[in-house]
Amino acid sequence: MILDGSSPAAIEEAARALAAGELVAFPTETVYGLGADAGSDAAVAKIFAAKGRPSDHPLIVHVPDASAVTAFASDVPAFAQKLISALWPGPLTLILKRREGVAAAAAGGHDTIGLRCPAHPVAHALLLACARATPPVHGLAAPSANKFGRVSPTTADHVSAEFGDALPVLDGGPCRIGIESTIVDCTRGVPVLLRPGVLTREQVEAASGEALRSPGELAQQAPRASGTLESHYAPNARVRLMDAQALQTALDLLGQDASGIAIYSRAIVRTPSDKLLRRRMPDDAAETARQLFAVLREFDAQGVRLIWVETPPDDPQWEGVRDRLQRASAG
Ligand code: TXA
Ligand code: MG
Questions:
Q1: Contact in structure between 318 and 312 (CB atoms under 8 Å)
Q2: Does the global pTM surpass 0.85?
Q3: Residue 205 is part of a domain; what is its CATH number?
């Protein structure tokens, strides 16, 4: 059931349900999360069951402010502290060494923990209400509120469509950012980018004062993150990425009665048939990130077989969108 996220009574009701070990979905500025008390292994088990996600895939724990970090993390390197000071609250998740005996199920049994302080006012109000609840909840484990491997939800309706009407969903409107947070691993001595988001490498490097590495650059392999699996964020239709010219050539080869294909491109292409669905990709990376998952869901809802997407520009601003589209088109 969808609850009004701007209602203080709804926030209190959601916090009570979470403190009682129930699941509640809530908005963040990136995507909607499926939340549970991070301190309760039984509550967290409900997330893995609802998502169909393997229980060794770690979840992100959401905290109301930077002071909650030490409740979950045993060690915060200086560069991680700088990232927190500069970029929280915001679309940045840090992987830190986990405090022993804390949030083991949320961490998927790993000895590290992913922490994020979301900037959405409804998420913030919920986290504060949870901290005041009886018993208090100090952090919310919350993966994106979608079934395992599917596209993340950016509206309350998307969440209800995934999990049905029984799940309480706080409605905070459409997500402002639209793709998941940037993830930086801070457990290996230097910052390592595990998942790009809307923050550019330059922004992360300026904030941390260190060069940002890629997992492949370091000798030891990073733990496998589900958001880093090749085929992830996939709609039902097959996604194919092509440059504008290849897209036009492919369209020219289609006959008059071509159907079941959707096109998402910046270039204005000639389509052979007016049965093809078409959405224009914005020129702006942030605007594209905001609408990307909703557009993929919309095409799926229309029952198309194929989604042909123009490859986004090879520009730092577009890294997060490129990453999601590459994964959506893998496999
Ligand atoms: O924007 C976001 O990050 C959203 C909102 C709800 O906060 N959450 C999100 O969660 O995208 P999820 O579970 O869909 O993706 C979390 C990613 C996964 O790839 C997971 O493997 C990785 O974070 N992760 C979490 N904890 C980790 C850890 N301890 N070590 C390595 N990766 C971790
Ligand atoms: Mg996810």
A1: yes
A2: yes
A3: 3.90.870.10
